[in-house]
Amino acid sequence: MRISPLAIAQPPHFSAHFANTSAHGLRLKNPAQDQLWHDTEFFSPSSFFHQLLEQLKQLPPGTPIYSMACSTGEEPLSLAMILVSQFGREAASKYKITAVDIGKQAIEQAKSGVVTVNHTERRNADAALAGSSTGDNTLMSFLEPLTRRDYRPALRPRINNVTSETLQLQPWFANLVSQMVTFSVGDVRQVLSNNPIDSSKPCVFLFRNAWHYLPDKDRTTLLQQLKQQMAPGSIIGIGHLEHERSGEYATRERVSTAELIERAGFTPMSKKNATLFQKK
Ligand SMILES: C[S@@+](CC[C@H](N)C(=O)[O-])C[C@H]1O[C@@H](n2cnc3c(N)ncnc32)[C@H](O)[C@@H]1O
Q1: Domains of the chain, with CATH numbers?
Q2: How many contiguous H segments (helices) and E segments (strands) does the chain have?
């Protein structure tokens, strides 16, 4: 089951968000609305974060990171945790994570510092953080039980029917996050036109499990921008949904996103179902 953005137990069907247009497939009916699926989890999957950390270690310290379609913030927060675990608290003054999502409510929640966590997320996080150079980090060394009184129901009160725990960032970590992560509402299709990437150094551009929201021509335009703007050595990260070749996520894609990324000159960093691609 997917999580409804508005805490409705049963989300509307996928097709409710799309108008069937032409041979080009489905077009997002109203991308500005908040009726998008904001499913996301901490360290999901932990193998992705392991692999990404290995790449970040090879890239210059302070490599800029884009977390597009960041939803309620679990991806940029996972990155912040892994960077702090690996490089210590000084990571906050080096690394900048630009986190953007089209959903206003999702970004509001991300900014609140209140999160919901289930067992899988804890397990994944602990696995991803275990190998850190600074020792025995776990998810709970960054989070603590919620004490705020102004808490309003989260966008993710339940995950896969499992009641999740409501937590908040520990104050020291919230302070680092405020230095490292900038959350804003935006459309990935405009972000790089309005604020081009600094082409003088490599960067990491994550846009995971959201390419299916873009019509084909927008996927192509975004990839052209990335090809032009990203310096050699830069990395694009995608999600598992970008490899779905059947079912609702694949219906509008004649060419997979992974294939388009390769065609744009990025090399897959693993043999099968790569989720990281590097510009040579
Ligand atoms: C399934 S969630 C993926 C969240 C996260 N990237 C992950 O993989 O865990 C999809 C997210 O994409 C966002 N989204 C959809 N179209 C977008 C666009 N054009 N620009 C920015 N965000 C978008 C939605 O609001 C939603 O939060």
Answers
A1: 37-279 (3.40.50.150)
A2: 9, 14
